[in-house]
Sequence to fold (368 residues):
Amino acid sequence: MFRLRCPTANGTGHPLRLGPGALDVLPALWRPEWRAAALVADRTVLALHGPAVLRHLRRCAPAIRVYEVPPGDRHKSAATWLRLADRMLADRLGRDTCLVALGGGVALDLGGFLAATFLRGIPHLLLPTTLLATVDASLGGKTGINRPAGKNLLGAFRVPAAVLADTALLDTLPAREWRGGLAEVVKHAVVADAALFARLEHEGRALRRPGSLDVPTLARAIRVKLDVVARDPFERGRRRVLNFGHTLGHALEAATGHRVHHGAAVAVGMAVEAELAVRLARFPAADRDRLAGLLAVLGLPTRHACPFERLLPHLEVDKKRRDGKVHLALPARLGRMAGGRTGWTLPVAPSELRAAWETRAGRTGRPA
Ligand SMILES: NC(=O)c1ccc[n+]([C@@H]2O[C@H](COP(=O)([O-])OP(=O)(O)OC[C@H]3O[C@@H](n4cnc5c(N)ncnc54)[C@H](O)[C@@H]3O)[C@@H](O)[C@H]2O)c1
Ligand SMILES: [Zn+2]
Fold:
């Protein structure tokens, strides 16, 4: 089992436990002043792993209430947030309640936001059950819900009391969700850990199987995000490096009505942004090819047939300038991002973006 400490803005940090059986430490982390547990859980995860989680909770929480979150990003909504908050109020839960969020990024973001707002804030624990939530959504203190105007537009920074990432729970992940999480692991390797990148290349196709990443490799991917967040807890600059692959990825998701999975869209986004990095940030062409090669080996796409015109409305163009540019986080080489002196992004003209998108579209590689 890995024991990590997650840095927090106030400098104290909180514990993270990673590995099979991480849930066993729940009683040791449970505080005597927490008189009730509000388990806010993804419905699918509850069906698969609820009995095991409840068994652990019964060993420490004097009272337990369970609140289901229907699966899917559209349920990370104001409606679900209000419905669960009202139920918790009807159940007369007080400030001595610890909210336990169980599931992927949806249940964790929603649960964290509930914890931040319920009775002006109650403590919470995060129990991630997807690869993405393990290496990304459970880290860094961002919580929130979606609005029709966009994703994650209402939220709060709220640090959990602890993160318990029991990797045994990842074995039941559908292949698509696992692959999506792999894209984020690759992203972390490109951003700050060339040795992690090489390790992923070494494992290759074997990583396609859900649950196949070993705990030390997961810990490396986690450390990349923790390091970045420690240096920029409120996203003032450096944290933008974590957007690698996401500017184009988000545009592709939006342009296709979210029919392309987030992880697949990020994979395409990384492949295209790597083309731009070669042109604009001296990213070696050999590194670009290694990245596209690794994504393909992992079963992730590196191109998409969507015409560039359909992406354009979804790209955040800087409207203050006539030649409105898009600001991208680009790698300088595998394991290091460019732009340290200019706020960690580089301005890219839409014409350059179009050229990179169309170059990739013409390349061989797995389409999304
Ligand atoms: N807070 C942050 O810093 C942060 C960072 C990245 C992403 N996010 C958010 O995370 C969300 C995406 O998270 P996600 O990819 O984990 O998706 P998710 O929570 O929607 O889970 C994906 C699917 O997997 C199922 N599932 C979860 N765990 C399972 C398991 N162990 N076995 C079987 N099925 C399981 C769920 O029911 C769901 O259908 C987005 O809303 C995104 O905005 C937040
Ligand atoms: Zn992502």
Observations:
- The mean pLDDT is 95.
- The CA atoms of residues 113 and 312 lie 31 Å apart.
- The pocket of nicotinamide-adenine-dinucleotide (ligand 1) is lined by residues 42, 44-45, 48, 71, 73, 76, 103-107, 109, 129-130, 132-133, 136-137, 140, 142, 151-152, 169-170, 172-173, 177, 180 (CB under 6 Å).
